[in-house]
Amino acid sequence: MEKYEIMFIVKATQEASEIAKTADAMKAIITDNKSKVADFKELGEKKLAYPIKKEISGYYFVMQVEANHKAVSEFNRKALLDERVLRHLIIKLDEE
């Protein structure tokens, strides 16, 4: 299992319950693929540097995961398909 940091931005124009539901769905992608979410942070709503899909603000989430390649690939695929997710970034962390 490799360690990754995953950041994703959810549309802030949704209701709070929808934002939480989207975040839980993204987290579930990792856990459903036999991987572990070590840390999950909700950074809150922030103004975007430039409009993305006509949105000017987004709700930020960051999670540290220990995941296999399949889980990360599936997260990437579903984040690209989900219209509620504006952007995402997956960074492989160095082994210490």
User: Could you say what the CATH topology is called?
Assistant: Alpha-Beta Plaits
Total number of helical segments? 2
**Uncertain ranges:** none
What fraction strand?
over 45%
Please state the average pLDDT score.
94
Query: Based on the structure, what is the oligomeric state of the protein chains?
Result: single chain
Order of the strands making up the biggest sheet = 2-3-1-4
Helix-and-strand structural type: alpha+beta
Q: Fraction of residues in helices? A: 25-40%
Q: What would you report as the Rg, rounded to the nearest angstrom?
A: 13 Å
Could you explain the architecture of this structure?
There is one protein chain. With 96 residues, the protein is an alpha+beta fold. It has one domain (2-92): Alpha-Beta Plaits, CATH 3.30.70. 31% of the residues lie in helices and 50% in strands. The protein has a 4-stranded antiparallel sheet with strand order 2-3-1-4, covered by helices on one side. A hairpin with a 2-residue loop joins strand 2 (36-52) and strand 3.
Give a short overview.
With 96 residues, this protein is α+β, with helices and mostly antiparallel strands. Helices cover 31% and strands 50% of the residues.
List the helices and strands and how they pair.
Layout: E1 2-11, H1 16-32, E2 36-52, E3 55-67, H2 69-81, E4 85-92
Antiparallel strand pairs: 1-3, 1-4, 2-3
Helix pairs in contact: 1-2
Notable characteristics:
4-stranded antiparallel β-sheet; globular; Alpha-Beta Plaits; 96 residues; alpha+beta; single chain; 2 helices
